[in-house]
Known about the structure:
Layout: E1 3-4, H1 5-9, H2 16-39, E2 44-46, E3 52-56, E4 61-64, E5 75-76, H3 78-88, H4 90-111, H5 116-120, H6 127-141, H7 146-154, E6 160-162, H8 170-175, E7 184-187, H9 188-197, H10 202-221, H11 232-236, H12 240-257, H13 263-275
Parallel strand pairs: 4-7
Antiparallel strand pairs: 1-5, 2-3, 6-7
Helix pairs in contact: 2-9, 2-10, 2-12, 3-6, 4-6, 9-10, 10-12, 10-13, 12-13
Amino acid sequence: MAIELKTLLHNLTPGTKKxxxxxxxxxxxxxxxxxxxxxxxxxxxxxxxxxxxxxxLAIPIHITDAIPEPILNxxxxxxxxxxxxxxxxxxxxxxxxxxxxxxxxxFRVVLQKRKGDEFLGKSIPDLPAVEEIADxxxxxxxxxxxxxxxxxxxxxDVLGAYWFKAIRDPKVAEAHPERQDGKIHLYWAVIGFVAxxxxxxTEALAVVVLAHELAHAYTHLGADIDGVRWSGxxxxxxxxxxxxxxxxxxxxxxxERLQDKAPAVHAAYEELLKHQPDAYxxxxx
Length: 285
């Protein structure tokens, strides 16, 4: 029986949203500093001639409970569900796999002591069998890639979104007040689910998504040292490979800059990249 992705998103570990919020609060300023240094661009509002004025542009970042429309109807079959269950506990399975040999040695040492039988009853648990089970479960979990399936099916905004163009139609704008220039959404539930499936730190993945969406903002609205900016319309109407390639390039650079202070962020970027569609890899060409 198939299960919907939105059902899985509604059953995440408690506290996931708070972890994404904490990542935003801690890393928003450092990520923006890194982007300014990497791009040489500043977010200042344009004057009547389109050049940057002295007024700073606000780029609000919302941690939203919403689930992106393109993934609302994604479902997983029985085989994929099994992999998702196992991936959820992959960290524990890896720890069990790695520690079983050492624990087995510890039990043998304990049994040699005078009070050892009080703890173990003169028997050693069958740890090799447990290790084998953990290994089999990890292999089974690796047979499916639910994250890759989601990202490649949608090939667009899933973890976060930056709105390139404000909606001009008043009726549409009223129905979608969130879609405005210079506004970022971080979908905390999707970030938490993907982090869980890829065995990543939730905060670290949230920083990667934050950097990616802010990179969109800087390449869209940022002005160079002469106050000149790329036409927002031209960028927003460019091919996906262009907009995502630019954002991914600067995301990679930001993650490298944060390597010393937050090595888990760069690791999260590298792991996520393995599962993303081709448009998100054009910067590597």
